[in-house]
Amino acid sequence: MKQRLMWCGIVVWVAGGLVGCGGVPDWVEQGSAALHQDEDQAIYGVGSIVGVKNEPLAWDAAENRARAEIAKTFQTYTAYLMEDYATSRTSGNFTDSAEEQNLKRTIKTFVSTTLSGVRPMDRYKDEDNETYYVLAKLSLEEMKDMFEQSKELNAQAREFVRENAERAFERLREEEARRRR
Question: How far apart are CA 25 and CA 125, in angstroms?
Fold first, then answer.
């Protein structure tokens, strides 16, 4: 009886150790920027999403975000605008003053590219915080094909970015004009 209990204890201990050893995959901890495997000659992207209860939808969103991470590696347009306003007012006797500051930062990032051959390679779900992770891969050979096919698309993407960035900053100007009135 004692021997049987001892073996059961050992089996439970070993099984618990194996489950604990599984843990979080390295690629989840490293993220897209740190992933590189020279022998693969590929680019990797890690996508994640948290708080989505619909599991198929969560996996799709994480996979799409992994693809977006790869796309950001190739071509990203970023528009940056910062406005800094400061004023100091004093009353007629120069004893009372009022200070005012207003600092705004607007950043818009846009990525547009066609990705061919990006494949999901691994998936992981963190049960504790309901986060879904997907690792995607684009091989060097598929990347070369993608660049050959996207030569015309880059001009279209640049035009689209120009038009939409201009609209975004026009909305910013309109908002500023409303605030001044």
Answer: 10
Tell me the pTM: 0.56
Q: Are 75 and 150 within 8 A, CB to CB?
A: no
Strand ranges for 5-118 from DSSP E: 42-50, 77-90, 97-110
Q: Residue 135 pairs with which residues in a beta bridge?
A: 46, 122
Which pLDDT tens digit goes with each residue over 80-127?
889 898 998 888 778 888 899 988 998 888 888 777 788 999 999 999
Query: How far apart are the C-alpha atoms of 103 and 90, rounded to whole Å?
Result: 21
What are the beta bridge partners of residue 49? Answer: 132
Q: Read off the tokens for 141.
A: 């050979």
- Give CA 98 to chain center in angstroms: 42
Could you give the CA distance from residue 173 to residue 178 in angstroms, rounded to a whole number?
9
Q: What is the DSSP string of 92-127?
A: TTSS-EEEEEEEEEEEEEE------S-EEEEEEEET
Strand, coil or helix: 78: strand
Whether residue 46 contacts residue 28, with contact meaning beta carbons closer than 8 Å, is answered with yes
Helix (H, G, I), strand (E, B) or coil at 134: strand
